[in-house]
Every structure is written in C-alpha cells, then in structure tokens.
Amino acid sequence: MTTRSSSPLRGIDRRSFCKLLGGGIVVLVTARPAELFAQQRRRGYPEDLNAYLRIDENGRVTIFSGKIEMGQGVQTSLAQMAAEELGVGLDSVNMVMGDTDLCPWDQGTHGSMSTRFFGPAVRAAAAEARTVLMNLAAQKLGTPRGKLVVDNGVVSNGSQKVTYGELAKGKRIARLVDEKAVLRSVGEFKLIGTAPKRLDGREKVSGRAKYAGDVRLPGMLYARLLRPPVHGATRKSLDTSKAKELPGVTVVEKGDLVAVLHADPERAAAALKLVKAEWEKPAAAFDTESVHDYLVKNAGEGEAHVSRGNVASVIDGGSARVIRSTFRTGYLAHAPIEPHSAVAEWKDGRLTAWIGTQGPFQARTRIAETLGLDEKSVRVITPFVGGGFGGKSPAPQGVEAAQLAQMTGKPVMVMFTRGEEFFFDTFGPAAVVKINSAIDGAGKITAWDYHVYAAGERSAEPPYDIANVSLKSYAARNSATGARIHPFATGPWRAPGAGTNVFARESQIDIMAAAAKVDPLEFRLRNTSDPQLIRALKTVADAFGWKPGAGPSGQGRAIACSIDAGTYCAMAAEVAVDRKTGAINVKRVVAAQDMGLVINPVGAKMQMEGCITMGQGYVLSEELNFRGGDILDRNFDTYELPRFAGVPRIETLLIANERLAPQGGGEPAIVPVGAVIANAVFDATGVRMFRLPMTPARVLAAMKA
Amino acid sequence: MRKSIKFTLNGRPVALDTDDGRTLLWVLRTDLDLTGTKYGCGEGICGACTVAVDGTAVRSCQTSLAAIENKKVVTIEGLEHGGNLHPLQQAFIDQGGFQCGYCTSGMLMNAWALLQKQPHPSHAAIVDEMNSNLCRCGAHQRIVAAIEQASKSGGAR
C-alpha cells in the first residue's frame, strides 16, 4: 500500500467507508477494464476500486461515479445500465458524480471512455447487487432463486412479493466484486437500447441546474485576477494602491498571484481596472499565418508509428502515379459557453472546492500540492459542467480559488471572463500533415507516406489495404532545444488530432479517386476489406442517395469515413459554394455510425448531431488568431462559433451491432467533418482546399488561383 | 447612482436600494439569488444571459438596473407556473433541446419572447431569431424542433 490517498477506500477500510455511505447494501467493484488498469499502473496511480453502488432501505439505488456530466448525457446512460442490471426503474436511481470524498478515483472524463470503460464496472456492480438481493429474497420467501422474478425493484415468487427496500432494510452488507459478473444479455434488455428522458432535463430547462458559478456561500467574495497581456510576459512593476482605496475591496499579492476581491463581482472588476502593472513582452516567433512553416522547420525526428513494406521504392520508383499534398489546420478554442468557474471554502483545516472540471481528482491533486495539504484535506465537488470538449481537464481556476480562500479565510469564487477563457484555453494545436501516396492503374493504393506535425497520430492510420505504409508523427518541440514550440498552452480538443488526420487522409483519398477517375465511394470500397467500414460506407451511401460518378460532378456531394474511439463513422454531405463570396453553404450531412451496443440511441444521436454541428466551426470559421503569445481573439465577435443559420440538415443512423461492446460516442462523428466538406467543395467547384478552416476568403482565393 | 429601484420580477414587485448603474445580470445572480440566468461572454454576443423585459428579449449583461425601472422582467425562473413547466420548457425536454444546459436559459427566454410576439413563427423565422444565441454542444436542430413543438401546443402562453 502506498501512503498516497486516492479515495475513501485507501487502505480498504471498507467498514468505515460503508458507514460513510450509510446502511443498506453496498457493492464495490474492482473488476476494471484492462486498458484503464494498465493506464493507471503506468502513471503510478494506486490500483483502486472502480465503482460503488448502494441500495438503501427505501429501495433507492445510488451510483457513485468519478465521471462528470458536461452535456454528453452520461449521467443518464450510466443510470440506465445500472437500472437494467438491477431490474429497477430508472427513477429509482440517483447519480452522485465527481465528488472526490464520495466517489471512486477516476482518471477524468474524456476520450469517449465513460460508457466504454466505466459502463462495464457499473453494470457489474449492479449485477452483483441483484445477486445479493435475490439471495436475500430467496431466504425470506423460502423460494429457490431460480423461481424468483424481479420487476421494478419488486421480487416475486408468484404468490408473495418483497421489495428491494425491504430486503436492504437494517442490513449492512458490503460486497467486493472481483470477477466478471453475469450480465443480462441483449435479449433480456428492458432499458439498454431505449431512450428515456434525460435525468438532468427538468433542472436544465428550469434554471435550477447548478454549475460551479452558481454556488453561493455566506460571506463569499468574487475574485478578479491580474493577468499578463500576452503569454510569456514578465511583470516589471505593480501598483495596487488605488484598488485598495475602494471600500470593501480585499487585495491579495503573493508572487505571480495578484487578485482583488469583493462581495459584488462588478466592484471586483472595477477594482481590477485600478491595478496598474507594467510588463515586458517577449518577441513573437510566428503568427496565425507563419505557424505551419515554423512547425515543420523546427520539428525534430519524427516517431514512426507504422512502417510496413517499402514506401520509398514505390514513391520514388517512377512507375506509380504519386500524389503529394500538404494539409494545414489552425489552433482551436474549446469555447464552452460556461467559462471556467470555481468556488473554494477553507473551513476547519479542510478545503472544499466546487469546480467545473473534467478531472475532479486531478484538480484535487493540484490543489493539495499547491496549498501544501494532504489530499485527504481537499474535497472537490463537481456540479454540472457547462461544456468541456477537452478544455476543462485542467482546472487552473480551482487552484486559484483554493489559494485565495486559504489566504483570505473566506469563500472565494473565481469565474473566468470570456477574455480569460480565450487567453487561458488549452488550444487544440495548429498542425501540418504531409502525404505522398501512390496508385496503380487499377485504382489501388500502393504506397502511403504520412507525416503529421503537432497533431499526434490519433485516427491517422489508414483503414485501407495498403502494402507499403509509413506513418510518422512529429511533436511540436524544437529539434535543437527540445522546448515546446507552441507559444501558449495546447491540449486535447474533442477527438484530439483525429479531425486533422482524417481531414488530410480522406482528402487525399478523394484526390486519388479523382486522379484515377473513379467514384469516391467505389474507390474507398475497392481499397478496404474491413467489413465494418464497408457496411458503414454502404449504409451512409444508401441513406444519402449516393449517385456514383467520378468527381468533380458539380453537384457538391462527397463522402468520407473514419474510425475513432472504436467507433466507425461514414459521412456524406452536400454543399453549395457561392462563387462570388466563396461562402460554403453546407446543406445536408448524413452520418452512419457503428458504435457497437448502443445504450441510449437518442443520446448517441444527440452526440453525433453535436459533433457534426460543432464540426462546422473548425471546418468553416474557427481558427485562433494570434501573434506569438498575444491572443488576438478574445470573444465570440471574432472567434466565430457555428450558429443556427449555418447548421445543415443532419440525419444520423446507428448501425445495429449489438454483439460488440459499447464503443465511443462523444467524439467520433466530429472526426470526418473536415474531409467530407472539403471533398464536397471539390465536387462542387473542382477546387481542392488544403487548409482548415475553409473561410470564404480562402475558398475565393483557391478558386481564383 | 444609489437609489430605490422598483420593477416587476417574474410577476412579483421588487424594490432594491442600490446603485442603478449595476448590471441586471449580476443583480439577478447575486442580490436576488436567481442563478438560472448565465454569464457567457459579458458583451451581449452569446445570449446566455437573455431575459425578457416587457416581453422583449434583452441581454441582461448589457442592461443596467436604471433601464428596467418600472418594467416587467421575466427570467427562466419565471416560466414555470404552479410547479408546471411551460410548454416551451417541456418541448425542450421532449425534443432533447439541450446538452450541457448552460446556454439553455438564454435559448428558452429568447424563444419565449419570440412566441410572445409571433405565436406561430415559420422555421425560417425561428432560425433567424435564434441565430443570435450561441450553443457550443450543437443542440441547434433540436432546439428549433422544440420551438416548433411549443408553437403547435400553445407555447405563446
């Protein structure tokens, strides 16, 4: 056992833990998916329990999960899985999520992993609880287990009935499941595969749903912090005297942390304007337009991820038709509508923080480290999170609120302004992809030489049968010094790097299809033997009404496909391009997705629609403008999110594949959006777009070139 | 300027003795403890802070207390009646017109104000009116469907 605390179950003091949870029946699951297990071990985290579930004497079921709800609907889908295995109604299930005192340690909510990896643990816990309850019922009713049926939390032997609540009453049973539980099979499902109303609906439409910024504590102060004008700036002077003169203002100065606090957030903002500071700014090495050359020029040795056959002999051999392309994408803001927010309270030697974060346990660690506390002295509670998309995995505002609460002895709220949100975002990185590929006379791809700079290699591997493949990934680090190239923080942005990789790959596939004068759907089918991919492509083509023909047809129709987070997605789109303005009007997008067993089909479709809609942004309008460490876009006036008028007609199809365990749902459908629209622009105009976003100015320039 | 400001909030009279230059959004969220109205951008661009003043949708982050004196303010907390959801709220649930829920109050208030003026708007009119509100999760298509449902079921109440 390590001494490091990770959850209330450290030391497996199950007795006191169950006391904390209350009476009834508690099931703890250690069975965890091998992948997560390995990941945790690699990072040095303790091997710990994965899910808790309690049934109390009222028959209510509570699931304790370290995951958080940020709109992806996992609160509902996890409850659905538990209710299914237990044989209770969904309304009997409470979810306690993202509370580090009550929930098992979790690595954070990201990577389309909640349903894939956490779902099985919830199902196992619930299945074990059902076994415990059925054994109790068998005793109580004097009937063998096999003759009992359960419906909506009521166990019956035909003549007598007993409820789960009655069985749990007065009991203190804790079970540790360390083996795979017997789960219900597809044919037995009553709740899995259905679309009940979301558990968070009523709260969210009534304004009662609480986000971190809605927490109110007596005596709470709103903090505003002094921020550098550009990333990398050094403060040369500071004068807080004018701010201190305002009544009710508290000023905190400790190293780089300079804050003004007031009970009224507007007064705090006014006080911050009175704080004077001078800064030394570093010179800008590159900007929005020069970043791509800079990335390539300064990249070090790439890391080979795939090396198969002999790419060079085909590409340089002189006999094959070789196509060489370079694709570029810009930095992307996560831009959730809820800015990073946190409230912290220091009380009786303990720090409690309510944080809008995708990683409550990681926030707890950072707060404990920063404040010099044991992790046991820090509790992070995660209310509803108002969108994350990867941007709320770090929680700097939580650490700031905690520091200020400790220093002032009062509860403190830190809510980023929109300007701070844009400044401190961990942007999806700008990236470059270079592809050299070859085709033979039969329209078969014979070589694939792929180089990706700064985006990483997620979803980069081509799902095509190519004998000669080289895939290299170059980190954004200076080749000489090893220092990071990006002038500001970057991080995962919904399906990190996959959108860039698939934009490049599926564009290149289309370029090759056009060069071979082959229909782009036929070209893909000719080059793959993956049955799931073939089925996804055919499904989307049918639903779209695909008319075969080599591009460009002038109709603005195209296809693209991807595999991400275990999920296959094929997408077709129709666009019109305004030849005067260069504006792209995406009229229709059809997507077919094979994600294995679907827990909640409407929830899954909402994620697909969300992906396709959000995708319109990075494909058509979103790109962070910057000059070195200076962030030029600080609000939605210049950084343009998709709006109602720009949302195409979206049709989504789920391909039945119940024998495959649930795969990712929150990210896969955003991945092929860039390629499908770029390919449709080509089909409409004959012009190939190599850079995202495809702004009207860029389309116009490409058409004139 | 400090003064006594009177207005109607969700059908009830309110009198506040405070600086009338303060912003409605923050007065709602602090003094009045109505946190359903959200801060999103602070510049009236995103619409998360939308409330209705005398039946018209306004951005509460751009509205001073002085501007609402003697007027009728409706916030998201004012849509329910006697514990029953407004048809528009029910339609958002039925159609799945939200994901993270953070823009939802503003969306609902903008749509509510639209239906007050125009009980049966066309699809194009809905898109046009809602175009000024931002949603990052991508619930747009379902939000439009929800407004259409509410319009059909008498959402202009």
Structure description:
The complex is a heterodimer of chains A (705) and B (157). Chain A is α+β, with helices and mostly antiparallel strands. In chain A, helix 11 packs across helix 12, helix 14 packs parallel to helix 18 and helix 17 crosses helix 18. Chain A folds into three domains: 197 residues, Aldehyde Oxidoreductase, domain 4 (2-Layer Sandwich), CATH 3.30.365.10; 144 residues, Aldehyde Oxidoreductase, domain 4, CATH 3.30.365; 311 residues, 2-Layer Sandwich (Aldehyde Oxidoreductase, domain 4). In chain A, strands 11-12-9-19-16-17-18 form a seven-stranded mixed beta sheet, with helices on both faces. In chain A, strands 4-3-2-1-8 form a five-stranded mixed beta sheet, sandwiched between helices. In chain A, strands 14-22-21-20-15 form a five-stranded mixed beta sheet, with helices on both faces. Chain A is built from 19 helices and 28 strands. Chain A starts with 13 loop residues before the first helix and ends with a helix. By secondary structure, chain B is α+β, with helices and mostly antiparallel strands. Chain B folds into two domains: 74 residues, Ubiquitin-like (UB roll) (Roll); 66 residues, [2Fe-2S]-binding domain (DNA polymerase, domain 1, Orthogonal Bundle), CATH 1.10.150. Chain B has a five-stranded mixed beta sheet, with helices on one face. In chain B, strand 3 and strand 4 form a beta hairpin. In chain B, helix 2 crosses helix 5. At the A-B interface, helix 6 and helix 17 of A face helix 2, helix 3, helix 4 and helix 5 of B.
